[in-house]
Every structure is written in C-alpha cells, then in structure tokens.
Amino acid sequence: MSNDPITLEIIQNSLQAAADEMFAAMRKTAMSSIIYEVLDMGTGITDAEGRIASSGAGIPAFVGVLDKSVQFVLSKYKDINAGDVFITNDPWHGGVTHLNDLVLAMPVFSGGKLIAWTANIAHNSDVGGMAPGSLSGDATEVFQEGLRLPAVRLINEGVTDQSVMDIITCNSRMPDFLLGDVWAAVASVRIGAKRLEGLAEKYGVDTFSKAMDSFMEFGEKSAKTELAKLPNGTYELSEDQDDGRVYNVKVTISNEEMIVDLRDNPDQDIGPTNTSRDGTIVCAQMVFKSLTDPETPANDGSFRPLNVLTREGSVFHAREPAAIGFYFETEVRVYDLIWRCLAPHIP
C-alpha cells in the first residue's frame, strides 16, 4: 500500500473525474428534459461503508442524499454481489426526498472485495399516484403520491429483474420516458464502477481505500479548523410561517461541534409539505459546509463535526406514511432558518 501523498491525491482527483463522467453520461442519455436540460439530478461515489467520498456535478441537496441511500441498502442486504444495481425512492427506505426522485446504487468490487459504490439520483416525470406528475397539493399520505420502491434489487449480478422493471413502468403515465431515464441512470453507475475498478487495479485495493480514508480525514480536519474560527455560543430563532405555525431552531457552536436543534417544531403536516429526517440533515450539511471551507470538495469527513437533532412526527422528521411530495419547499425553509439564525452573529 502506498502512502505517497501525490498518489493519494491522484486517486482522489480520479474519483472526482469519475463522478463527473457519471453525471455527463446520465445527462446525455436521459429521455426527460427535467434531467437532460434542467439537470435535476446528482451523482456521487461512496466508500464500501456508504460514506460519501466524491461527488459529481448536480444539485448539492441531491448529492447529500446518496450516502444515506447506500447506507440503507447496506443495512437491508447481506448478499450484495458484483453487477447488482439497487433502486429506491421511498423516504423511509433510503430514498430521502420524494417518490419522483429515483436513486440507483451499484456496488463496486475488486478482487472479490467490495471497495466502493457508485450512485445517482434524478427527478423522474411521473411515478404514478393520484395526479399527473405524481405531485398533488391534495395528497394526505404517501400512497397517493406514486409507486414506492423500498430499496429493491433492479439488476441481479448483471441480469435485469424484468418483473421489477415492469412494475415501475406500468405504474407511470409516461412509461417510455421513465424506462429511458432508468437505463440512463444504470449507464451512469456502470461507467462509474468501470472507472473505479480500473483505479483499484492500477494502484491496488489497499491504496485505493487509503486514498478515500485520507481525504475524509482531511475533510474532517479542515472542517474543525474552520469551525474553531466561528464564534462559540448558542443562537436561537423563531419565525412565523404564512399558515400561522412557528418554526424554531437552536444552533450551538463549539470548537469541536456544531449542533442544529430542530426538535421544537410543529407536528407533521396533514398535507404533502413534510420532509424526512435525512432531508433535514442535508439542509444542515449545506449550511455547515458553506461555513467551514466551501472551496474544497465535500465528503463524509466534512460533516463529522455536525450533529442534527430532530423530533420524529414533526414537519422536519415526518413519520411514515405522511405525504411528502413538496418536501423541497420545507427544506428550503429549514436551510433559510438556519442561515437567518446565524446571520446576526457571523459575518
């Protein structure tokens, strides 16, 4: 195993290039304009444990989803094999956001050993449900918002499970587009896996893994260095919402940790404007990264000093089977709430 910092840096930059190539492959081959024109998608690479190691272009909130999705797959399956591809969209089964957003994850093996994962996420135009586009302001439970895919195996050792694919397309009002977008996502994770296999073969599995660990350690060190420059203290904010509810946040900053406490918030909505705990964590991660070295790539180490507290059953940590279609509007409020809490205290 090589500890040469130049070699480790080359591998890390190669991971970034692979994630970017995954993004380009998906953009060029997707059928839906929301993917190939709007670029409502994201790509990333995790280590064998599902910790984010590198991210491609795309929406930051989407990239923050991928490690959480892979970790759920790892918790669910013990029989993971080369050539497998998993798919999820369910917020309570690794999907994080809403049912329109399909996450695909592929394990990467070298010498029979699991060394990494490639993953992507994209908004798909219609996955069934009570309304065209799978989004309705009248939804009161997730069952009305489309087909739920609870981290299922779409491809088994390179062989497509046609039954799963048929279920997915049969539930969509735009089956041809959905099929094309799913295959674009498959192409994306496969090209990423091919690049990582080549890296592991060239430099060796141990050096490949060391490079990812090393960069995560660098991410944690950089985050803590910048965190120590922020004013220590506890800051609170309460803001009235248009519907009369009040959102609350308390942020505690020390040299070692930033705690975002969102437990004191309203119960989950009866409509579709709830978000999952993982989605709320992504919002806090984006603020934290912006405050602690936004110029460097994000990885698992970048967020180790961050601790997010939520209350299950609240609007920021909805309990299954809450409707969740318009999660994004609520996440924007979480993100803004944290910023506005800190703004008077941090230049």
Task: Walk me through this protein's architecture.
- With 347 residues, the protein is an alpha+beta fold.
- A 7-stranded antiparallel sheet has the order 2-1-5-4-3-6-7, sandwiched between helices.
- It is flat.
- Helix 4 crosses helix 5.
- The protein is 40% helix and 20% strand.
Terminus-to-terminus distance: 44 Å
Strands, count: 11
What portion of residues belong to β-strands? 15-25%
| Overall SS class | alpha+beta
**In percent, how helical is the residue content?**
25-40%
* SSE run: HHEEHEEEEEHHHEEEHEH
Strand order of the largest sheet: 2-1-5-4-3-6-7
What Rg do the Cα atoms give? 20 Å
Number of helices: 8
> Which residue ranges are poorly predicted, with pLDDT under 50 across at least 5 consecutive positions?
none
Rough shape? flat
Main sheet: strands, sense, barrel? 7 strands, antiparallel
Mean pLDDT: 96
Task: Offer a quick outline of the entry.
This protein has 347 residues and is α+β, with helices and mostly antiparallel strands.
